[in-house]
Structure formats: structure tokens, C-alpha cells
Automatic annotation (TrEMBL):
This is Cell division protein ZapE. It comes from the Bacteria. One of its GO terms (cellular component) is cytoplasm. GO terms for biological process: cell division. Signal peptide: none annotated. Keywords: ATP-binding, Cell cycle, Cell division, Nucleotide-binding. Gene3D superfamilies: P-loop containing nucleotide triphosphate hydrolases. InterPro entries: ATPase_AFG1-like, P-loop_NTPase. GO terms for molecular function: ATP binding; ATP hydrolysis activity.
């Protein structure tokens, strides 16, 4: 089994040759906001005046998190929120991609005066259940003050029901829940999440959540061109040689990388990226297999969390998902991935 590249400083590796492992303890230790959101606060969230729901949601979440307020005696760690009734232990952020939901989720995490709090993606939590078992996971989180879940998914009914059962047990014990949406249905339009589908899916939990709709445009597209950067062979070689002299880079053929991702659980993708300063991908082609496309989405999510630039040749990465995929049930995921791919190739 190959090791992860954490010890390397400079040079070139192939992700398709790595088989990372991760323990339950490692998974728990990683349940904190991604590095790019280390300093995320409500003050640094830039609400767009053109979309009042952004400022309204920010204020509601400040109240929910008890930001700046001392914990009331005998009443837990949360002061009464104006828009979130005291009987509602959870908030659910519903909106398009690129409107700052993860920034707001991280702001809750940082602002809440909690002794025990966790922040992770839906995939990370379900992987933890798989590694530790359901009951041990319940015991681990029981008594925690806050659980933040980014990109709540409805892709797998089994995973969804495990998570909703877990959340039900934790809420009954006093844990606050904050979640963002990431589900296949786009019944409410482009880039939108059908919040009611989520609420119906977790019928026993629906009464615990206040759903907050956040409108807006993708902030990643406001200052850059709408297409991913494509390099020719000479440009790619020059960029990768320069990057490898200053840090650790990966260099893989697109087909080899996609094939390898099928052999690694998505919860371990972040370990593939340990220590990397640049991701290099040669000969990108459009994907035809939906399972492969969804694995690429999960990989790009982790690369974006780690803010690792991408250099690529071949088909533009914003064209990697075909029209049939973009018109299907996973449309929102693909659009979010495209937005992130464009941003990472401009880094």
C-alpha cells in the first residue's frame, strides 16, 4: 500500500499510484472547517445588497449561534433567536451554489461558544459511521453542542436514513444542528435545492429545522471568466516544472485518475491531496459514465476545500460533464463542480 505524500516537500507524484488509508481517529480529528474557512466569520461574509435574503439569513444565524452572547444559566449555550424559535434546534441553509452557504456554516461553528462542536461534509459523517459503526458514532457525538453538516446529500437512501436517525438521537440529547443543501432534485430551478424534498425525506426530523432560503449569484464567477483555463502541452510542462521546483505537485492522465478514484472511498480523497500545491491533469475528456462523474465531483469538492490550483490539458474542465448529465437529476452537483473547477484553474 502506497503512503500519502505528506512527507514530501517538492517534486512530482501520481495520484493514480496512491492508496491512502484513514483511521476513525483521523476522521474525527478532521471534523473542523476546511482551511479556506479557518477565518470565516459573520463579519467577513459579504452579503449582496441585491439579495436581501443573504443579510437576513446572516442575522438569523448570528442569533442562532449566540454570537457574542454569554450562555444563559440553565438554558444551554444558545440565546433566543428572533427568527429561529427556541423549539427549533436546527437550521437548514437552502440556496444555489456560490452564495456563501459554507462560509455561513463555518461562521456558526466559529461563533458558537460551544465546548464540543464538529464540522464536516455529509460524506465524512457517513464514512465515520462506516468506520466506527452506528452505535459508537452515536456515543462519540452524544452530548456535543453543535454538528455542522455541509452538502447534505440524498444520493443514497441508506446513507440518508442513517444520518437522519443519527441526527434524531443527537437532537433529543440537546445537540444543535446546522446543515447546507446538496441534493439531486432541482425542482425549484437551476442550481436550487428542493428543501421540501429534504424535509419529506426526514419526516421525523422536519419539525426540528428552520429552513432558510439564500438567494444570489455564484460569487466565484463575479470576477473571472466563465471558462476553465486550458493549457497546451508546452504551457502545461512549464507550469508543472515551475510548481514542482517550489512544492509537491501531482501529474496524472485524466483517464488514469478517473479510474483510480473508483478504487478509493470518497472519504479518503482528501488524503490523496495531502501536501499538494498543484494538481496536474493531462488529456481531459468529457465523461460519459455518471458514477465516474459523481466521483470526480467529490474529488473536486475536496480539492476546492483545500484550495489546490489545477492545471490541465485537453477538454476544458467546465465541459467535462455532458449535456445529458447537466439535464439530469444531479444537475446541481455538476454545476457546483464546474464553478469550482473554473475557480481552481484560475488560481
Amino acid at each position: 500500500m502506497a503512503s500519502t505524500p505528506t512527507s514530501a516537500r517538492t517534486g512530482v507524484i501520481r495520484l493514480s499510484e496512491l492508496s491512502p488509508s484513514v483511521s476513525g481517529a483521523d476522521m474525527v480529528a478532521a471534523l473542523v472547517p476546511p482551511p479556506q474557512f479557518d477565518g470565516a466569520t459573520f463579519e467577513t461574509y459579504r452579503a449582496d445588497p441585491a439579495y436581501p435574503s443573504q443579510q437576513e439569513t446572516k442575522e438569523t444565524l448570528q442569533a442562532f449561534s449566540g454570537a457574542g452572547a454569554p450562555a444563559p444559566r440553565g438554558g444551554g449555550l444558545f440565546r433566543r433567536a428572533k427568527k429561529v424559535p427556541e423549539t427549533k434546534p436546527g437550521v437548514y441553509l437552502d440556496g444555489g451554489f456560490g452564495v456563501g452557504k459554507t462560509h455561513l456554516l463555518a461562521s456558526i461553528y466559529h461563533a458558537m461558544p460551544a465546548r464540543r462542536k464538529y464540522f464536516g461534509s455529509f460524506i465524512e459523517y457517513t464514512a465515520l459511521v462506516g468506520a466506527l459503526g452506528y452505535q459508537k458514532t452515536v456515543e462519540l457525538f452524544r452530548g456535543s453542542d453543535l454538528l455542522c453538516i455541509d452538502e447534505f446529500e440524498l444520493d443514497d437512501p441508506g446513507d440518508t436514513m442513517v444520518m437522519t436517525r443519527l441526527l434524531g438521537e443527537l437532537v433529543s440529547g440537546g445537540t444543535k444542528i446546522a446543515a447546507t443543501s446538496n441534493t439531486p432534485p432541482n425542482a425549484l430551478g437551476e442550481g436550487r435545492f428542493a428543501a421540501q424534498d429534504f424535509l419529506r425525506e426526514i419526516q421525523a426530523m422536519s419539525a426540528h429545522f428552520e429552513t432558510l432560503r439564500i438567494d444570489g449569484t455564484d460569487y466565484r464567477q463575479r470576477a473571472i471568466d466563465g471558462h476553465a483555463v486550458v493549457l497546451d502541452e508546452a504551457g502545461y510542462e512549464a507550469a508543472m516544472t515551475d510548481a514542482a521546483a517550489r512544492g509537491l505537485v501531482s501529474d496524472d492522465a485524466f483517464a488514469a485518475l478517473i479510474a483510480h478514484l473508483a478504487t478509493v472511498h470518497p472519504s479518503r480523497y482528501i488524503r490523496l491531496l495531502d501536501g499538494l500545491s498543484v494538481i496536474g491533469i493531462r488529456d481531459v475528456t468529457q465523461l460519459l459514465d455518471q458514477a465516474a462523474a459523481l466521483r470526480l465531483v467529490a474529488f473536486i469538492d475536496r480539492a476546492y476545500d483545500a484550495q489546490i490550483p489545477i492545471r490541465a490539458t485537453g477538454t476544458s474542465l467546465d465541459q467535462v460533464f455532458g449535456e445529458e448529465m447537466l439535464g439530469g437529476g444531479y444537475r446541481k452537483k455538476y454545476l457546483r463542480a464546474i464553478s469550482r473547477l473554473v475557480a481552481l484553474t484560475h488560481e
